[in-house]
Amino acid sequence: MIEQVLVLSLSKQTIERYNTTMSFSEELNIKQGVFTFAGDSKLPLQSGREFGPISVAYETYGVLSKDKCNAILLLHALSGDAHVAGKHNKEDKKTGWWDVMVGPGKPFDTNKYFVICSNVLGGCSGTTGPSSLDPLTKKPYAMTFPVITIEDMVNAQHALVKSLGIDCLYSISGGSMGGMQALKWVQMYPEMIKSVVAIATTTKLSPQAIAFNEVGRQAIISDPAWNKGDYYGKKELPRKGLSIARMLGHITYLSEEGMTRKFGRQLSSSQQFQYEFLTEFQVESYLHYQGQRFTERFDANSYIYLTKAIDYFDLSSGYNSLEEALAMVKSKFLVLSYSSDWLFPTYQSDELVKALRKNNIDVSFCEINADYGHDSFLLQNDLHEKLIHGFLENVK
Amino acid sequence: MIEQVLVLSLSKQTIERYNTTMSFSEELNIKQGVFTFAGDSKLPLQSGREFGPISVAYETYGVLSKDKCNAILLLHALSGDAHVAGKHNKEDKKTGWWDVMVGPGKPFDTNKYFVICSNVLGGCSGTTGPSSLDPLTKKPYAMTFPVITIEDMVNAQHALVKSLGIDCLYSISGGSMGGMQALKWVQMYPEMIKSVVAIATTTKLSPQAIAFNEVGRQAIISDPAWNKGDYYGKKELPRKGLSIARMLGHITYLSEEGMTRKFGRQLSSSQQFQYEFLTEFQVESYLHYQGQRFTERFDANSYIYLTKAIDYFDLSSGYNSLEEALAMVKSKFLVLSYSSDWLFPTYQSDELVKALRKNNIDVSFCEINADYGHDSFLLQNDLHEKLIHGFLENVK
């Protein structure tokens, strides 16, 4: 398969490396690669700018069938990356971000499907983003990186998929920002896609969600260590601002009932209030931990660029209605929402479903009862696993 | 009446000034005062510390009846102050924070009732707080100010009310943190209170609300200008951090539907995306404006202290149940919640109502349909005005 990939990659594109060392999670047949394109002929961005070269870090799981018709493209959310399932090494503490969903016998069954996941354009886990070196200046792009959109992310993924010799995707799926990419994919490349699994997502970001993103961005750019985005290689990084943005994000990913069940008003260590400005409540400790940990793996500028891309997302932009914006769609759909998701509430999925049905698209829709808020889509849940499994079985 | 106040103030207490200049809103008979107590005999705080002297800035509206039985104590929310209604001067741009509710012919009718409102302990609008001068050091307390609680606020108000010669309150009322104070009042001084109007409030802060408060505090203390709280008189103030905290607060005071109706995805100036990191969406401009304006009138350290007091609030703390925590209550209750308030949702008011009814308290409860979120209680609304008016008419 590796030879095929190299042969089929377009002339201006290169596969920089393709890690064929045996992975720890052998049954997943994890392969890592970086695909580079738009070196000479830049990628036109939605902003009107052109940009390149672009490297796309990706992983594949399972085996591409001879007819190349079993590929499923998974699309990650804001803080995700290409590593969707399994472990690369025995020492890895954590599996990929959607390990509950991807693997042999799991809904995205790697015994049947060839699963592809790539880090998004603008990200910081291998794909070109603000922390990447600008070949012209030999310095990180930082804030000279162009403002990108969900459409631009999809175009980069499209170039990757084509480079793998794949003309037809059995399914595309993602939650949250991943779902936005899935919807943009099916709007831009409807002929390529047999089915879509859109999870905990929306066709346009609400003003409340824009507001939360803006507060997060303000926390980052107000951190003196952010230094107008020019902090790479410096001693001080904008960890504090990024941590605050992540703490806030986490509140929106959970739900009030989930937090009450998980933390309540429990204190971290003492049995009684200390009447000091300490991190006393368990919910505070949890958020501090999540915020701090995030700064160890995520780039503050990527956070700014990706949240802006999310804010801009409006599938019906340029159309008279959402129905019209989906008129080209032929794919079968599964739409899932979660009862306690208040960031992308069920009514937003419902709007998508209604617009698809007006276009006579075959749509299955389920609101899953779960108290874990927006993050429910990432967690073990028999119902959504069965629904996705069953849906994929019946794609023709 | 002024003379009475002076005569009745306790020996260790002083009325520093009492502004009898004619107010602009003459019909309200606004009077401003500062009551100082706990100079020699300090106030015991819930933390176990003692603190004093304490000055309480307050305003009164209307006239205290001869039998002193027509006083209503209004309790402000996090960012409020003693100035609840009308204007002090013709030049004032804004009226008090609850002008829709307080005045002749309004629900808290100043033709009938003697309305009192004081700035809370820990605040920054005249009452002793972290920005006040410590008489020992002649410097602002800053973070040497003791951690205070809703109970401590109530004790300061109690001293004020007693100093005014009032032994019985016709009603106490407040929304949000003001409602918490009302609940604490009736728990601590049940014999003094004929009726309670508890609006958009809760008997204990949820972990989600604690989490939002903690993110706001982190934004402030991460601002280098905060300087461990020691910024008074300095050139740089922690405006950026306080502004971010306020922006976040504002999101929680509104609702998703309210924001969608008010702002939608409308842009501020341009008709199309600029693909730059500008304040593009109207909702962003609104939050920036609110954040910036807040820093002109509020002290960052007060924000830290008051949110901590809110986090600590749990009416049933020290009791076996909420029912038991309200067993001493004799007052008649009106409880109001708002359908779109997701910060202090209706179920929390419902818990209060159920606990009161178990104690055979006369409770009227209404969830008011309003899409303005938590802030609905501050806005014009025929229904809540009529309900409060009618409720107060029938207090005996």
Task: Jot down its keywords.
homodimer; 396 residues; alpha/beta; Rna Polymerase Sigma Factor, Chain: A; 2 domains; nine-stranded mixed beta sheet; two-stranded antiparallel sheet
What does this structure look like?
Two copies of one chain form a homodimer. Chain A has 396 residues and is an alpha/beta fold. Chain A folds into two domains: 2-205 and 315-393, Alpha/Beta hydrolase fold, catalytic domain (Rossmann fold), CATH 3.40.50; 209-309, Orthogonal Bundle (Rna Polymerase Sigma Factor, Chain: A). The first copy, chain A, is 32% helix and 17% strand. Chain A is built from eleven helices and 15 strands. The first copy, chain A, has helices at residues 2-8, 150-163, 177-188, 207-221, 239-253, 256-262, 282-295, 300-312, 322-325, 346-358, 382-393; strands at residues 14-19, 31-37, 43-44, 50-51, 54-61, 71-75, 102-103, 108-109, 114-118, 133-134, 139-140, 171-175, 195-199, 332-338, 363-368. The first copy, chain A, has a nine-stranded mixed β-sheet with strand order 1-2-5-9-6-12-13-14-15, with helices on both faces. In chain A, helix 4 packs antiparallel against helix 8 (300-312). The first copy, chain A, is globular, with a radius of gyration of 21 Å. The two termini of chain A are 24 Å apart. Chains A and B meet through helix 4, helix 5, helix 6, helix 7 and helix 8 of A and helix 4, helix 5, helix 6, helix 7 and helix 8 of B.
